[in-house]
Write a structure and sequence with these properties.
This protein has eleven helices and 25 strands. By secondary structure, the chain is of the alpha+beta class. The protein is globular and about 65 Å long. The structure holds flavin-adenine dinucleotide. Flavin-adenine dinucleotide is lined by residues 7-13, 30-33, 41-44, 96, 119-120, 147-149, 153, 173, 249, 251, 270-271, 278, 281-285, 287.
Length: 442
């Protein structure tokens, strides 16, 4: 019997596997694909995800491969990230296939087993274990986590509903070569039909995106470079000589949230639990952060007891709810009519105000996330002994500051969970320290 089976070796599944290893558990990752998908998809990681990777000592290769962009946007309205209260006040532009390669390398370094070309097809559970049927036989474990993306088989097999709002528009994305590219990058240029963009992430090819608000296409219908050409011609009046597509995809603004994150011994994380329009680049980030919240709790459930597992849903589902809300707002702000243009004008003026810029930036960057009954995230800082606070989280263990000689600390005492949220601080009094240690199994 396995300790934990993770279905899906995307960013969420890989991050969860790393966290479980640090928690002393040996997970098995089952992935349907024979190798990395090569789909470029997500274009970047936000500050909170960088902090998380830093807390596990795995950020350096991401910083080395990515491009630091001091600006982000809300529905195409520019935001200045440079004042974000973090060591990483920027968006790190790095493509998803590179993120997945770095996460997989780290998972292998930690001894995670990833078995490919295995698709989950069935699931049954008893009071003690879950058995999953796959194309390569059965696997059993006390816990199974569905990290198998927006069309999650695990979610469906576990009988978890996925309510939300249907698509109201159609987006096409192509990573292509252009014979005559525009002189400068184009970002969300508005037209009577929606908007279009041409971005240059890496030398030699361009990401072309069109958003059409006057029809909803069938997401499952085949998509070709000709569909993208037709849409681009309509928006931009030229196809820029596009050719040699590497990846073409159609998506939309359907937004859905799992009604529960847990059914008995089956849990969901990442896109399996929430989907939305990729506005502001939050999907992959939210999935990695789900994994960071779940990993240490699940490790304790495997090794000790299950008391903490329900806090995963109570802490993370409201976060996804907010992401769905802000992406719906961004879709609404992108509609091509005159009223929306006027609304965008108002919001553009507002976002020039420092407080509005800060509030929207912190939301997209994931820095304003707080959980009911727990303190805020701790920001990194330099310590008197020359170390940085985040270095003390590399092992995935909780950190007690001001009571434990292992970390030189010059402030009020604090107990910090393995995911960087404050579980106790000196002002709460000594009896509360014992309660926090018990409650969070620290
Ligand atoms: C155009 C586009 C741009 C985006 N841009 C951004 C961005 O800038 N920033 C951002 O944060 N997010 C972005 N996203 C969203 C991001 O791509 C997803 O949120 C992210 O991939 C979710 O990761 P995941 O691991 O949860 O799921 P997935 O990446 O979907 O991984 C799921 C894995 O499960 C496997 N699987 C599925 N079913 C089975 C089965 N039955 N058995 C075994 N394995 C299975 C799949 O093969 C896959 O490898 C974008 C998405 C799109 C489409």
């Amino acid at each position: 019997m396995e300790q934990v089976v993770i279905v899906g070796g995307g960013p969420t599944g890989l991050m969860l596997a790393c966290e479980l290893r640090l928690g002393g558990v040996d997970p098995l990752v089952l992935e349907r694909l024979a190798g990395p998908s090569g789909e470029s998809r997500a274009g970047g990681i936000h500050a909170r995800t960088m902090e998380i990777l830093d807390m596990r000592g795995m950020l350096e290769p991401f910083l080395a491969e990515g491009r630091r962009l001091p600006r982000g946007h809300f529905a195409g309205i520019p935001l200045d990230f440079s004042g974000l209260p973090t060591r990483y006040p920027f968006l790190l532009n790095i493509l998803q296939r590179r993120i997945e390669r770095l996460l997989e390398a780290r998972a292998r370094e930690l001894g995670v087993r990833v078995r490919r070309e295995i698709a989950v097809t069935g699931l049954r559970q008893t009071a003690d274990q879950v058995t999953i049927e796959t194309t390569q036989g059965e696997f059993a474990a006390p816990f199974v986590v569905g990290c198998d993306g927006g069309r999650s088989t695990v979610r469906k097999l576990a009988g978890i509903d996925f309510p939300g709002t249907p698509a109201t528009m159609t987006a096409i994305l192509g990573d292509v070569e252009l014979a005559s590219p525009p002189a400068d990058p184009v970002f969300q240029q508005r037209t009577p039909y929606g908007n279009w963009s041409v971005l240059n992430f890496e030398p030699g090819w361009y990401r072309v995106m069109t958003n059409d608000f006057d029809h909803v296409a069938d997401r499952d219908a085949p998509i070709t470079v000709e569909d993208l050409r037709k849409s681009l011609l309509r928006h931009a009046g030229t196809d820029f000589g596009l050719h040699s597509p590497r990846w073409i995809s159609r998506y939309n603004d359907a937004a859905r949230l799992a009604s529960r994150y847990r059914s008995g011994r089956v849990l969901l994380a990442g896109d399996a639990a929430h989907i939305h329009y990729p506005a502001g680049g939050q999907g992959l980030n939210t999935g990695v952060q789900d994994a960071f919240n779940l990993g240490w709790k699940l490790a304790r459930a495997v090794l000790h007891d299950q008391d903490l597992l329900d806090t995963y849903e109570s802490e993370r589902r409201p976060v996804a709810e907010r992401v769905l809300a802000n992406t719906r707002a961004q879709t609404a702000l992108t509609r091509p009519d005159a009223q929306t243009s006027a609304l965008r004008g108002v919001l553009t003026d507002l976002s020039a105000l420092g407080d509005v810029n800060r509030s929207l930036s912190e939301m997209l960057a994931g820095l304003d996330i707080s959980y009911a009954g727990v303190g805020p995230r701790v920001a990194d800082r330099d310590l008197p002994d020359g170390t940085r606070l985040y270095q003390h989280f590399h092992s995935g263990q909780p950190v007690l500051l001001g009571r434990d000689d292992s970390v030189a600390w010059d402030g009020p005492a604090m107990l910090i969970r393995p995911d960087g949220h404050v579980a106790w601080s000196e002002s709460m009094g000594e009896p509360a320290l014992r309660e926090a240690l018990d409650r969070w199994q620290l």
